[in-house]
Hints:
single chain, TIM Barrel, disordered C terminus
Amino acid sequence: MTPTRTALSVNLNKVALVRNTRHLGIPSVTRAATLCLQAGAHGITVHPRPDARHIRAEDVRELSALLKAWPGAEFNIEGNPFHNLMDFVRELRPQQCTFVPDTEGQFTSDHGWDLQKDAQRVKPLIAEAKALGVRVSLFMDAEARSIPLAKAVGADRVELYTEPYAAAWGTPQHAQQLRRFAGAAQAAHAAGLGVNAGHDLNRDNLPDFLGAVPGVLEVSIGHALVADALEMGYDATVRAYLAAMTRGPRMADQ
Ligand SMILES: CC(=O)[C@@H](O)[C@H](O)COP(=O)(O)O
Ligand SMILES: NCC(=O)COP(=O)(O)O
């Protein structure tokens, strides 16, 4: 298989989280986006939760304007389409939206869609987003047999929920998790779906993941990347992640 060039979309939720603890507007989410894009990031992701604990509606609008003026950059808005996501999709028409089945007030995303249950509910919303010219990705657990359902409901891509891999990285379960994610990606490709991945990815666990899981088109990374940026700055951090994404696997053969 020809190696895939994986895009890095930086999730800026945690920049907004710090900003929201004062009324001073710092750190600036749009400034962070600018610095990440200048360093070579391919896009920006946000997950505006209904409780606005971090990204607020105004952030989404400002980032949309910034990204529309940035040649080639991709804006990915994540959220639950039965809560607030579709309002942003209709108003701003980002390049991509990612449907995530979170409850309101959820601590963080921790599972993918159960399409046996939700297929009929998500189908018209996927069709609506696609009619607006917005690519639709569905946040999914890495279960190979569930993945083809994402194609059946009309999605363009799946985003594999990588926390179980991240938690297993460097443990005896590492290789088994890599096989599981590789199988899910293969099932997606066989169904005609593109593959994204995200949640708890970091500089250490990325090379093995991208070395073992075929054809990942995009990773969205926020928490660990912003934590690294507190120490190294955005420019060095984004460059380090881009380098990690092209480094060969270190543990995939174990
Ligand atoms: C879908 C996903 O994995 C991310 O959106 C993640 O949930 C980030 O959200 P928080 O930054 O609110 O944890
Ligand atoms: N879709 C995953 C994402 O945007 C970032 O997740 P995390 O790196 O903050 O865990």
